[in-house]
Every structure is written in C-alpha cells, then in structure tokens.
Amino acid sequence: MRKKNTVLLLGIFAILILIAAQVIIIRGVWKQQDQTIFFKYRDLSQQAVATLRGQKINAFDTVYYILGKYSEKVVKELPEVRDTIKMKDKKEEILNYFSKVLNREQDLSPYLSLYFEKEMGFKMNFKPRIEISNLEIIGRDTFKIFQNDFFRNPRSFTPGAGRQYALSSRISILASRQHLEADYYALNFDYYIDFSDKKKLILKEMSASLGMSLFSIVLIVIMFIITFRNLMEEKRLSNLKTDFINNMTHELKTPLATITVAGKTLEMEKIRQDESKVLETARLIGKQSVHLNQMINMMLEISMWERTEFQLDRKKVNIEEIMKDIVGSFKTGAGNLASLSQKYNLNGATADIDMVYFTTMINNLLSNAVKYSDKQTEISVESFTEDNNICIRVADNGIGISKNDQKHVFDKFYRASSGNIHKYKGLGLGLYYVKQIAVAHGGDVAVDSKPGKGSIFTVTIPY
C-alpha cells in the first residue's frame, strides 16, 4: 500500500509539473499573440487613416461644423462668466459637449470597420473612443478649456509615463491623432479603438497550440492511468501467486507429513504385530495419497485449461434430476455440517452438459458454502428458467464477501481476505473452476454478497 501511494503521488506530481509547464508556455504564447494583434491592427488602422487622407476625405466634417456653431455661441458667453466656480462648471460643460459630439458624429468608425473586413476577410467588432488632449476657445481672448500632461510638455513624454500611452499599449489601439481648428476653437484629440472580441481573435490564432497542449496532457494522463493500473494489476497477480505458493505448500505438507508419520509408524515392531493397526495405517496412507494425487491432478488440469479449450462430453440431461442427485450425494457426505433445502421450477427443462464438469461446478459451490461459514451452515438450492437460460442459485448464510473481493473471486488463485488465514483452507481455485465450467457451457456465473450476511451464487446455462 505504501509503495502504491508513493507511485500514485509521484505520478500526480509529474502531471502537475507538466500542466504547470504547459500553462507557462500558453501564457507566453498568449502574450506574444496579444502583442502581434496589437501591432497588426495598429498598422491597419494607420493605413486606413492614411488611405482616407489620400482620398481627401475628412471623417470629421460634421463634427467641424457642429462644434464651430457651438463655439461661436460660447465665445459670447464666456466673458460674462466672472465667478471662478461658475467658470470651472462652464469649462466642464464645454469639454463634455465637445467629447459627446466627437464620439457621436464622427465617420471614421464605419470606414475602419469596412477596411478591416476587406483586409482580414471577416467582420471585426470594436468600440471607438475619442479622448481630447487640448481644447481652446478662441475669441477676443483665448480660453484654455482642457490640456493634458502630454500636450503641455511633449518632449518630456517617455513610454509608460503618460496615461494615453499606457492605455494605448495595454488596452486600446491609437488609430489617429487629429487637429481641428476653426474661427472660434482649436482642438486636438486622439481616436482609439478597443476590440471587444480580442480574446476570440487570440484563441483563434492559438487554437492549434491549445489543442496540442490539451491533447498532450490528456494523453499523458491516460497513459499514466493505464500504466498505474497495469502496475497494480501486476502487483496483485504477483501477490496472488505468492499466496498460492504458500497455500499450496501448506496443503501439500499435510498429506506428506501424514504419510511420513504413517511410514515411521509401520516401522515400529509393536504396530507390525497388530494387523488392525497396520491396516488402519495403510488406509490412512492410501487416503492421503489420493488427496495428494487430486491436488497434483488439479494443477495439471489448470495447465491444460490454459493451453486448450475445455473438451466437453455433452449429453442432454434433465437438469432437475441431475441437480437432485448432486445435492443428495453432497448432503449425505456433509452429514451434520449443513442444512440443505431445494426448490426447482424447471418444468422438465433439459440441457446439453458435461456431467463430470457440471457435477464439479455444483459441488464446488456447495463446498464453499460449508467451508466459509462460522456457524451452522444453511444452504438453499434453487433452480428455474429465465430468458432461455437455466438458472441455478446457491445461497448460504456464511461469512459473506466484501464488494472489493467480489470483483476478483472468480480469478485464479484468488482468495478473499478472510480466507487467507488457514482457518479456511484452499488454493483459490474452486470459484475459478466454477467460472471456467459455466463459460465453457456457454453460460456465466454471478455473485451477490454482503459481509456477515452470506452469499448467493447464480449460474446460468443456456438450454
């Protein structure tokens, strides 16, 4: 478990490092694409404005006329404003009006939109924004309405120092700087465009890079999961083989030890003179030899099953009759070890089965019910037909099987955790045989169990 957790944590840590590296790369590419788009559309904007000037078209003709009329009116009103507070409010009013007219009446935005669509092949969505840098009302006296830091001292302007430059480099694109001058006003302003779908543009440009990054991350995660699962499966199989060797060693030692002791017993003069003792010892040796031979044959059968398919000697038999014979024989052999009940609803159903393997399958289920029980065993055997299948259900009141163990109970050599102690002897092959025999007959076997509540095994065989 400790090794498993270490491998898992190292794998997750490696994946996190990969994701972090990909994020850093993507951020760098995003920043690069952002700058590329900025310079690209700045150049396009300036080309559009230059083209417009080359055609001697002024996109601010309407603005020029409206502001001229308004300024003529303002020139007459300003000398009458003597109060400082009122003058401040008046300047704010004039600045707001100029800004409103500039943003509302200009014709540069539609022209830029058409120019972008022509050059790029698709429609660009952007928002225009005009910021006034200098505004003067000219009459008998010149009234400075507004003047920003850059216009006041242009030589001291350095990149990053001014608000307008910061906006232009980070958010907006400066498309044009304009100067309008009439009889009653002088105006300098900057025309900016903000792309509302700039992120979409960047994503479109980066779609290939993002796709490859995402694909590589998903691929590595999938490979890690597969590798980790394979590693855990190999470890599980290794543990199963180790448990099998330990259990097999224990099972072989018992008859060998008995035979060894019996052989030494026969060497004793006292025993040899007692014919009944000799006969009893000989029977014991014979019984243990048969048991030892059965285990060896079992291992040979496993090897044969892995190399070739089952060779079934099928015969059509009445399932109810054969089930009664198998359960009856088991009940006689089990004696007082178990209480068995039977219920059949087969209506004379017959199936092509191998009598030897079928009997082995049912006996293994009944033997397990007795073996894995810590109290008086109660076994219920039920058989019925369903969807062209014969269903044989063997239920017990034993120790039960956990959900985790249920996934592997039909695996070769597997023994449930509670079965690894020698209180419950076995090699982990009984249910493996059951599964193999059921599948060889074209059927299957399933288990439903809860720890402490017993188990229900259901075998289905087509008929």
Backbone shape:
rod-shaped
Largest sheet, strands/sense/barrel = 5 strands, mixed
Number of strand elements? 11
DSSP helical segment count: 13
Strands across the major sheet, in which order?
A: 6-8-9-11-10
Give helix and strand order, one letter per element, not per position.
HHHHEEHHEEHHHEHEEHEEHHEE
| Ends apart, CA distance between termini | 46 Å
Task: Work out the radius of gyration.
Answer: 47 Å
Strand content: 15-25%
Given the helix and strand composition, which structural class is it? Answer: alpha+beta
Count of spatially separate domains: 2
Q: Which regions have little confidence, pLDDT < 50, spanning 5+ residues?
A: 154-169, 418-422
What is the average per-residue confidence, as pLDDT, rounded to a whole number? 79
Plain-language structure description:
It contains 13 helices and 11 strands. It has 2 domains: 2-207, no CATH class; 314-462, 2-Layer Sandwich (Heat Shock Protein 90), CATH 3.30.565.10. A hairpin with a 3-residue loop joins strand 3 and strand 4 (185-195). It has helices at 2-54, 61-77, 84-105, 108-120, 149-152, 163-170, 198-266, 269-272, 275-307, 319-334, 355-371, 403-406, 430-440; strands at 126-138, 142-147, 173-181, 185-195, 314-318, 338-345, 350-354, 377-386, 389-396, 444-449, 455-462. The strands form 3 sheets. A 5-stranded mixed beta sheet has the order 6-8-9-11-10, covered by helices on one side. A 4-stranded antiparallel beta sheet has the order 2-1-4-3, with helices on both faces. Helix content is 59%, strand content 19%. By secondary structure, it is an alpha+beta fold.
